[in-house]
Design a protein that fits this description.
Elements lengths: L1 E3 L13 E12 L1 E4 L4 E2 L12 E5 L5 E5 L5 E5 L1 E9 L11 E9 L4 E10 L2 E6 L2 H4 L2 E9 L6 E2 L6 E3 L4 E10 L4 E9 L5 E6 L22 E2 L12 H10 L1 E5 L6 E2 L1 E3 L2 E4 L7 E8 L2 E2 L4 E4 L14 E8 L6 E7 L3 E2 L1 H4 L22 E6 L2 E12 L8 E2 L3 E2 L1 H10 L1 E4 L2 E3 L1 E4 L4 E4 L1 E2 L6 E9 L7 E7 L5 E4 L8 E9 L1 E2 L8 E7 L10 E3 L11 E15 L4
Parallel strand pairs: 2-10, 3-17, 11-17
Antiparallel strand pairs: 1-2, 2-7, 3-4, 5-6, 5-8, 8-9, 9-10, 11-14, 12-13, 12-15, 15-16, 18-22, 19-20, 19-23, 21-22, 23-24, 23-25, 26-27, 28-34, 29-30, 30-33, 30-45, 31-32, 34-43, 35-36, 37-43, 38-41, 38-45, 39-40, 39-43, 40-42, 44-45
InterPro entries: DUF4493, Put_CMD_sf
Protein name: DUF4493 domain-containing protein
Length: 553
């Protein structure tokens, strides 16, 4: 770098034997060696010609005159001199560089002698560099350099710092990290070459890590289990790796802006409060340092069981009851099945003239009823007469006597418990085929119910989740309740396999297990003779508002 000192010289008379010295320029050589390549110092820290102090030395080695900064010309006795240009202090460690150069000059009597000086950097250059990714891990930090017998001098980050080229140095990065812990790291340097820049990457504990594979089975509808990192996923020193692993956060985001952090529940790392059927990005993070990789997931759909409110029904059999007492139906609940096709089997072929069209011989165990301004399923244990409805139970004044009906059914009847379930009923084998397709994993299911049992009976309610091989991966308790007014009940799924995906769901309601006909009563039905709407009834279970719950519980 060339720096001029003057453009015009004043005309003046000199004393006898004198001439004038004019320093026309001071060249500052800003090129320094680098570990990799040559580089230049930043221009804003380089001195101008007017910043130098010029010492004038005669032939005997004596100082003749000193030109303070800003003075670039003077009168001198005719003769030969050495000019020494100095800027900065070679022995001082600072952000100010020290330059020095000299040249020979001869002053002629009565004349003007113009000359220049070339200067060079007289120090080594340390350039510390702390990455922004590391700085965010610090609550506070300082960077210092120190010689063995000297005091520590603070250094700025990512700037050239000038030090003498001899001796030994310790560069120290210290402070308090985001965990509230004190830290200190040292780098040792000695015998540094002048005019050489040493770049120090001050990243001793900047962790680098990857998030391990996240199995598909970890992803549920409203949350995701996280397979946590281990030391194998880290490239840091062991002590740093332990700190990172103890303070790592796993996060999910659907937009890349708002990140939902993980938490520990039941000893598991989990991210909750997710939306169903939504794409998320998963990452791990320590402070401002994120994992080198991410994972894309889509949450399950939080599918509800169809017709959980029991509002959708249809009929497949209709039969006029004897005595114009109405119509008997085989009821079907959309999305569910029952035993109704068995307990109404043969009703379509009944011969009305033989007085067989009665509900105590053909009737739906499970039917819709309206109660509390809501349609629900009534699931009943019923007894059905096996014989023909003839004169043995006929009274000329009262038609079929309810006492006689009850006795005949008890002596010659078949009892069926009422059921409502997800699946299909095999009429030929009189057994349910349990389960319907369902690909989401709930945490529990809830339902409203009331129960009126015969003495000692209990209803039966349970649910299961099956995998693609029809193996159970979750089930609830077998809930058995005694007499109960209308209330809401929740049964939690206990998962034996949290990694497998769901394929089917079974939800099962049964009116009870007691089929002792002697405990059963006759339900009068509507009106007196003929009592074609009467039923022989055991335990009765009413069900409504079946819902699956997907939030983490």
């Amino acid at each position: 770098m060339m720096t001029a000192c003057t453009d015009e010289l004043p005309t003046q008379n000199y004393g006898e034997g004198e001439g004038r010295l004019v320093l026309s320029e001071v060249e500052v050589k800003a090129v320094v060696g680098d570990v990799i390549t040559r580089a230049s110092l930043e221009s804003d820290i380089l001195p101008k010609a007017s910043d130098f102090t010029i010492e004038i030395i005669n032939n005997e080695g004596s100082l003749v005159k000193t030109l303070e900064p800003g003075t670039l010309q003077c009168t001198l006795s005719a003769g030969t001199y050495i000019l020494k240009a100095t800027y900065g202090n070679i022995e001082t460690m600072s952000t100010t560089p020290a330059f020095y150069g000299e040249s020979n000059v001869t002053i002629a009597e009565g004349g003007v002698t113009t000359t220049s000086i070339t200067t060079n950097l007289q120090q080594a250059v340390i350039h510390p560099r702390i990455s922004e990714e590391l700085i965010v891990h610090f609550k506070e930090y300082s960077l210092t350099i120190q010689q063995p017998e000297g005091s520590a001098v603070e250094m700025p980050n990512d700037r050239d710092f000038f030090i003498p080229g001899n001796g030994s140095y310790t560069l120290t990065l210290s402070g308090i990290n985001q965990l509230g812990e004190n830290f200190s790291y040292d780098w040792q340097y000695e015998n540094l070459a002048v005019r050489t820049r040493y770049t120090v990457e001050c990243n001793p504990d900047l962790p680098s890590f990857t998030m391990p594979e996240q199995p598909e089975g970890n992803v549920w509808s409203k949350f995701v289990y996280i397979t946590p990192m281990t030391a194998d996923n880290m490239t840091s020193h062991q002590d740093i790796a332990d700190k990172v692993l103890n303070n790592i956060v796993y996060e999910a985001s659907s937009d890349g802006i708002t990140w939902i952090p993980s938490e520990i529940k039941d000893g598991k790392v989990i991210i909750t409060k997710l939306e169903a059927n939504t794409k998320y990005t998963l990452r791990s993070r320590f402070g401002a340092v994120c994992s080198n990789n991410t994972f894309e997931i889509t949450t399950e759909s939080a599918q509800q069981v169809e017709n959980g409110d029991m509002e959708s029904t249809s009929t497949s059999i209709s039969m006029n009851l004897y005595g114009a007492r109405g119509i008997m139906y085989c009821y079907h609940f959309t999305g569910w099945d029952t035993r109704n096709e068995v307990t109404t089997n043969g009703a379509e072929e009944v011969n009305i003239t033989n007085t067989n069209a009665v509900q105590w011989k053909y009737c739906s165990n499970t039917k819709p009823i309206n109660e509390n301004n809501s349609q629900m399923a009534e699931i009943s244990t019923l007894a059905f007469y096996n014989g023909s409805c003839g004169s043995t139970i006929w009274d000329t004044e009262d038609g079929w006597l309810k006492k006689s009906i009850l006795n005949e059914v008890k002596n010659n009847g078949t009892v069926y418990t009422g059921i409502l379930f997800t699946g299909t009923f095999n009429k030929s084998s009189n057994t349910p085929n349990l389960g319907i397709l369902h690909h989401d994993r709930p945490m529990s299911f809830s339902f409203d119910y009331s129960y009126t049992p015969v003495d000692g009976d209990k209803c039966l309610v349970y649910a299961q989740i099956l995998d693609v091989n029809n193996n159970p991966i979750a089930q609830t308790e077998n809930f058995q309740s005694e007499e109960q007014s209308f209330t809401r009940k929740t049964l939690k799924f206990i998962y034996s396999d949290k990694g497998s995906k769901a394929y089917k769901i079974i939800i099962y309601f049964q009116s009870g297990t007691d089929t002792d006909v002697s405990k059963m009563r006759i339900d009068d039905g509507s009106g007196p003779s003929p009592r074609s709407t009467s039923r022989v009834v055991g335990s009765v279970l009413k069900i409504d508002n079946v819902t699956l719950n997907y939030d983490y519980e």
